[in-house]
Amino acid sequence: MRDHVGELGQDDVDRLIRQAGVFLLRNSSEGTFDLDMTLREIGRAYGSQVEALINMEGMSYVVTHADGRQRSGIVHAQPSLERLDQAADFKELTTRISTGALTAADASAALERLESNPSPYPVWARFAGVVLFAAGFAPSMQANWRQVGGSVILGAVMAVVYLVGERLEILRTILPLVAATAVAVVGFGLLHQAHAHGGPVLVMVPALFVMIPGDFLCAAAAEISVGQFTVGTIRLVQSVFILLQLAAGVIIGAAVTGVGTAALISSTTVNNIPWIVTALAWIPFTIGMALTFCARRRDIGWLLFGVYVAWGVQLLVVRAFGDAAGTFAAATVLTLLGVLLGHSPRRPPT
Which of 57, 122, 137, 330 is deepest in the core (most CB within 10 A)? Predict the structure, then answer.
């Protein structure tokens, strides 16, 4: 009877490890370097050892229980990161598991509920989030009202394509290409951006920003640096492919509207927005980011704190060493800040 009970408990642990592996893979767009560590932590809570071999969209694992019995498996999931609320809730669930507050069966049920939770924001709020995301970023690209106005309109175009793409599996693979083409067609055809200050691409970047794989590139570099060469290289290639789609979409938009590719490059910029507006614009940017990627309301303050710390560092370093050094310094400080804050179980993950 005791052995039978033990086997049932092991089945619960095996089920939890498999569920957690799928969840972590699905939310691994910002790196897999802590995936193996998280599974090990969950396994240790129930007296089991977990070994995992991680690929970009798949993972094989072996669970060794205290009595020496082993269970192996393979899971697959398409990496993304559309629900920051679920990522934060999973961190809290992992903390409860590691402290022994939940049985494996209870933890498995809790993870099922977590994954089935609806989005914390309705579709209209996420639509507004993409628009705020673009408009809030616009003054930092060019501090003029044309840039802001164009970003609101183009952000709305991006919001439609982005939210539809989430629901149509067939569209997800080429979503950057479709989104960039739609933004470029409206920008060139409706807003006549072919002769915009700074060039039309500079005006379109805030709307395209939600699709630019900056987090993918950072994750790829981090994975390669810690020896995860396979997944890091694949993610790097994927990032380049997304960038090529975005560039191709803008070129297609220019061709469709007849403006020609010569109109894509310009260096003339006009700044007529007060500095305080640029400074305050990071607030709607952060709110837009939270709405777009479904961050929890209680985590928005931490997001805003990180944004202003990074921006402040960038301003200081740019004055002394130039734009490239300022951007790199801001990214470095923000990364370290995220790791430091994410270390606490009471704060959202990195």
Answer: 137
C-alpha 312/C-alpha 306 separation (Å) is 10
Q: What is the pTM of this model?
A: 0.86
Rounded to an integer, what distance in angstroms lies between the CA atom of residue 126 and that of residue 200? 26
79-101 pLDDT, tens digit each: 877 789 999 999 999 999 998 88
- Element of type H or E holding 76: strand 70-76
* Contact present, 22 and 79 (Cβ < 8 Å): no
- Per the CB < 8 A criterion, the answer to whether 249 and 178 are in contact is yes
Measured between alpha carbons, how far is 60 from 49 in angstroms, rounded to an integer? Answer: 14
Residue 277 CA to residue 141 CA, distance in Å, equals 13
* Residues linked to residue 73 through DSSP beta bridges, in sequence order: 61
The Cα–Cα gap between 319 and 322 comes to 6
Give CA separation, 66 vs 24, 138, 157, in Å. 24, 56, 55
**DSSP letter (8 states) at residue 296:** -
Domains of the chain, by residue range, sit at 2-99+112-116, 123-295
Q: Cα 167 vs. chain centroid, distance in angstroms?
A: 17
d(Cα 339, Cα 59) in Å, to the nearest integer? 25
Q: Which two tokens stand for residue 321?
A: 């060493």
Which residues touch 315 (CB under 8 Å, ≥6 apart)? 326
Of 82, 83, 210, 239, nearest to 138 by C-alpha is 210
